[in-house]
Design brief:
With about 160 residues, the protein is α/β, with parallel strands linked by helices. The protein has helices at about 15-25, 45-50, 60-65, 100-110, 130-150; strands spanning about 10-15, 35, 85-90, 115-120. A 4-stranded parallel sheet has the order 1-2-3-4, with helices on both faces.
Length: about 160
């Protein structure tokens, strides 16, 4: 059996969201949908937004994640024009580590390109979802997103 792109989703959380977005941009026909949870979507703006108490780790983080720095030149954030895969952005409004600005900027850019995007900003949550009603709301929205993408493939 072979994998069927119309039924494959990619999901990432935190820096994994950046990787999921990069995979979707690199292979725009490989996925039925992309789910980004509390994600870094643009490395340069993420580094600029780091709270002062995390500034000391920025160089190590950039070196670890971006290697020689060439990755910043090919950010998926700057390559969204060819992406037609539906995207679900989920972000805790109180996330101190990865600010919701990351999701908001990506949403605005996807709207600018008229790309399919849905958002869920969760009040009272940070980098993880703890409150039961918020976890249930996340899975409800996720389920509807998956159903919609599977019933109306964009490819």
């Amino acid at each position: 059996d072979q994998a069927v792109p119309e039924k494959i989703f990619v999901k990432g959380v935190g820096f994994g969201a950046y990787a999921a977005l990069a995979a979707a941009v690199k292979q725009p026909d490989a996925f039925a949908g992309v789910v980004l949870v509390n994600g870094v979507t643009d490395i340069p703006s993420f580094m600029a937004e780091l709270p002062i108490y995390h500034q000391s780790i920025a160089p190590a983080l950039a070196s670890w994640y971006m290697g020689d720095g060439k990755g910043m030149l090919s950010s998926p954030f700057d390559q969204l024009n060819n992406l037609d895969t539906p995207i679900l952005l989920v972000h805790g409004k109180n996330n101190p580590w990865i600010r919701k600005d990351q999701a908001e900027r990506l949403h605005m850019k996807l709207d600018q390109y008229q790309k399919p995007v849905e958002t869920l900003f969760i009040e009272g949550e940070g980098h993880g979802f703890i409150q039961e009603e918020n976890v249930l709301r996340y899975y409800e929205v996720l389920g509807k997103f998956l159903d919609k993408a599977l019933s109306h493939p964009s490819h």
